[in-house]
Amino acid sequence: MDLIKRINAHFSDSAQLKLKAARELAAPIAAAAERMVQCLIKDGKILACGNGGSAADAQHFSAELLNRFEMERPALAAIALTTDSSTLTSIANDYTFVEVFSKQVRALGRPGDMLLAISTSGNSPNVIEAIKAAHERDMDVVALTGRSGGKMAELLRPSDIHLCVPAQSTARIQEVHILTLHCLCDAIDCLLLGVE
Ligand SMILES: O=C(CO)[C@@H](O)[C@H](O)[C@H](O)[C@H](O)COP(=O)(O)O
Ligand SMILES: [Zn+2]
């Protein structure tokens, strides 16, 4: 096994995918940032969810909005639905794991809030249920997916924004997801602070 060759291939594949994704996703990422800023300045909040690595991404993004990214600005309203183990275990234990995010969206979501729904396959049942709950609450959805967008792609409304990474590998898709989230944080800061 030539590990160095393998590692170089991972870096090369990831870099090439990022350049391809930039060509396809720059415009919808900008649109998502503008929509999020509109939500935030009207006192809305952003709820974020996902499983596994995407749970970590949801938390990473909400922390950068609530605390800070790279510029000094006021704290922004964002909540990851992946972090409260008492809430997550009680919903999963008393009902089903499929409902762990949707029940929180129904409790916390208000019209004008937004849901950031992250899934590399687009097929995680609990993320799908969260999208349905967000629609019931008149919340727009920004969906971060990969592959074909899965069942999430079919569920989205015209007012939602779909950022689908053109790749099959979960790891490669996640690597573009985290870059996309940093682009969103940077764009939100630029729009809020009026950076030219
Ligand atoms: O981070 C990884 C793989 O790189 C895993 O933890 C991965 O996120 C989990 O298998 C998720 O359950 C996959 O869900 P999804 O992206 O298909 O919604
Ligand atoms: Zn991973």
From TrEMBL:
Pathway: Carbohydrate biosynthesis; D-glycero-D-manno-heptose 7-phosphate biosynthesis; D-glycero-alpha-D-manno-heptose 7-phosphate and D-glycero-beta-D-manno-heptose 7-phosphate from sedoheptulose 7-phosphate: step 1/1. Zn(2+) binds at residues 60, 64, 174, 182. GO terms for cellular component: cytoplasm. Signal peptide: none annotated. Coiled coil: none annotated. Substrate binds at residues 51-53, 64, 93-94, 119-121, 124, 174. Belongs to the SIS family. GmhA subfamily. This is Phosphoheptose isomerase. It comes from Pelomicrobium methylotrophicum.
